[in-house]
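ok here's the first one, seq then struct tokens
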Amino acid sequence: MRGKVRGCALAVMALSASGCASANFFNTTTSWDDAPPTVARVFVVARMKSNELDATLYGAFESTLRKEFTRCGIKSEVMHTDDNTVENLNTASARFQPDSVLVIKDTGGGTVTVNLSNFSQRNELDFELTLLNAAKNTSYWHTYSKFDFRTKALYADNIISGQRLARAIVTRLRDDKVIKQCQMTEEDAKAERDEAAKRAKENSGFNVND
């Protein structure tokens, strides 16, 4: 149990140290001896809120992240550093007793104007994600992500953007073989195909009239 509390404390220290949406991951590293640890209970510590990633987007992200972990047979607890003290986070971690701690922290980015004539904009937000073994206080999955969601006339469907970011994170964990118990439904498969098609279109050039 003491190891689990230290795992959350390590996560908190790591945080203090530093419409159409897609999340691209890069520089992903994994580290385990024989097989990845079994993730059954994950405690998520987030530091993500900003002017661009507002309360509506974050709320959709958090609720969807919980649902996605549940779909994978994983119990989760999600807490944000803006809403809790370090003591609260450590107390919640000790009560929840996770086997893993997922740290998500913003590392920069902001709003980029695409077209001045119609105020078309996109938001490019950067995040660092680390998955820790709560008992050993060691990291075994680490990645950086660029979250890109575009707006027109200063508007974005933040609920959909938040949902897509959450699904992208869980999908990446699954693709990296960190979590393996997820069951892909036809709806999930269609959502991934649609996302891939959107990314292909975005990579071919942004059309503000889309």
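and now the second one, same deal
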Amino acid sequence: MRTDTPTRHDIDSSALYAAILFGGGERATVAEVKIFFETAAAADQYAVGHGWDDYAVSTVKFHLPPRVCRVRWVA
């Protein structure tokens, strides 16, 4: 069951996305989080491809000090 998946008009080109797998009743437990997607569609495709049933896709927000202007992600 997919919920909270951003629609095309919600996509932010500078955002980082996560797929969150829930592992308990009423989403009380998070079983796994994968944070490495450049688009919501890629996070959704990962979840579907790995057989996740109850998951959400969301943007990831990091609160950085005001002096930090740019972050470079290195894998």
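notes on #2: Residues 2-60 form one domain. The chain has one domain: 2-60.
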